[in-house]
Amino acid sequence: xxxxxxxxxxxxxxxxxxxxxxxxxxxxxxxxxxxxxxxxxxxxxxxxxxxxxxxxxxxxxxxxxxxxxxxxxxxxxxxxxxxxxxxxxxxxxxxxxxxxxxxxxxxxxxx
Amino acid sequence: xxxxxxxxxxxxxxxxxxxxxxxxxxxxxxxxxxxxxxxxxxxxxxxxxxxxxxxxxxxxxxxxxxxxxxxxxxxxxxxxxxxxxxxxxxxxxxxxxxxxxxxxxxxxxxxxxxxxxxxxxxxxxxxxxxxxxxxxxxxxxxxxxxxxxxxxxxxxxxxxxxxxxxxxxxxxxxxxxxxxxxxxxxxxxxxxxxxxxxxxxxxxxxxxxxxxxxxxxxxxxxxxxxxxxxxxxxxxxxxxxxxxxxxxxxxxxxxxxxxxxxxxxxxxxxxxxxxxxxxxxxxxxxxxxxxxxxxxxxxxxxxxxxxxxxxxxxxxxxxxxxxxxxxxxxxxxxxxxxxxxxxxxxxxxxxxxxxxxxxxxxxxxxxxxxxxxxxxxxxxxxxxxxxxxxxx
Lengths: 111, 392
Hints:
The structure holds 2 protein chains of 2 kinds.
Chain A: E1 2-5, E2 19-22, H1 27-37, H2 42-45, E3 46-47, E4 50-51, E5 55-59, E6 62-63, E7 79-84, H3 103-106
Parallel strand pairs in A: 1-7
Antiparallel strand pairs in A: 1-2, 3-4, 5-6, 5-7
Chain B: H1 4-12, E1 16-18, H2 20-28, E2 34-37, H3 41-45, E3 53-54, H4 60-67, E4 75-78, H5 84-94, E5 100-103, H6 106-112, H7 125-130, H8 132-135, H9 141-149, E6 152-156, H10 162-171, E7 176-180, H11 205-216, E8 221-225, H12 234-238, E9 244-247, H13 252-265, E10 269-275, E11 278-284, H14 293-296, H15 309-312, H16 318-335, E12 344-349, E13 354-359, H17 381-386, H18 388-391
Parallel strand pairs in B: 1-5, 2-3, 2-4, 4-5, 6-7, 6-9, 7-8, 9-10
Antiparallel strand pairs in B: 10-11, 11-12, 12-13
């Protein structure tokens, strides 16, 4: 059993928990266990069967991309941190169309 | 036991000395030695040799590595008469410095030869009082304070992160602050954006910031840019010359834009971001071997997965903590002291009061700072972050 730290923007997907336990001998098994229980996480963490490029996964403070990626072993008791990029700042997003720095694309991206 | 004179004579025979004429030739040469004045501050304040740095004799051993990390670098020491430098040169050789020379006859003889001297741009009494708590710190001191007064820091945003960062940088006496912000003060800002006030509702944030900062410290020159940083204006703003950039931006397009600009200009970027109770802080400094923001996050999340603080909220004091840490990093970079957060991402969780840290590595395949960069000019960052290109 390992501890997985859930970043604030993903907590709704896991019922608000800051940390959830997960089973798995490596990052892949651990994430599968987590995403089986909290399916909404999948879209936030995985692209094309790889860790999404806007998310970093750390095992004991080391980026798994610099280790063995999804095959990086995780020992019981180790801490895994999921870390998506955060933009804030504390303002409305720039791409809301109201302050079009580059108007042609700003409107389109105001989804 | 030898007397002082005997010891001086003995050590003088063990070190290298040059006279003022030869010293001047060395300093004018192709590979000039590092010139270190080891007199006391009050002697230095009355005049010095141009180009010298001040390290009083009592701090020589503890501070020489800050100015001369490489022990093979030639160093020329001078004092008033050329006696203290005999002991100083001996001491540096014991620390492993291999090329240390003492100026025989010291500053007195230099002046007697009619060679150039100058008054150090020292601190006047008002500045000595204002910055006295900095002057007491050996790692800052008079020289460090002069460096700060000579430093130029650009702040992106005068909002949650920019507020504490700008206040502390101004209070510390960073001589020039640039503030880029195209927004006006809104009531919802005042829960955390401590640069502004109720009376300033509706004012440009950059102008409001300037007023607050100049009331705090009139030594500081505040340049305002009432505009959003874009591919079109970034080069004009950077052309004003900045030593450090503090990124308090609120959106991904600006984060990627300023990252690319900072990499290309070789300017260290102090990153901070916040959400609800949590913050992330790092320093991106590829010019000194560290990773950049794109090494950390090659792509932004698609917009539907990236809530802003406007949607998610933020504890008012959180940017106070994160922005203050950014100011601390920026000051260290200006001073050239300590270890920055380059290569580390510091995570802070206010809800459980916990700092943690993860390692960041330079990505050799990074499209901007990697070995074979594929992005070499500004792109359309709004398009880049819209998700259509990368996540379609």
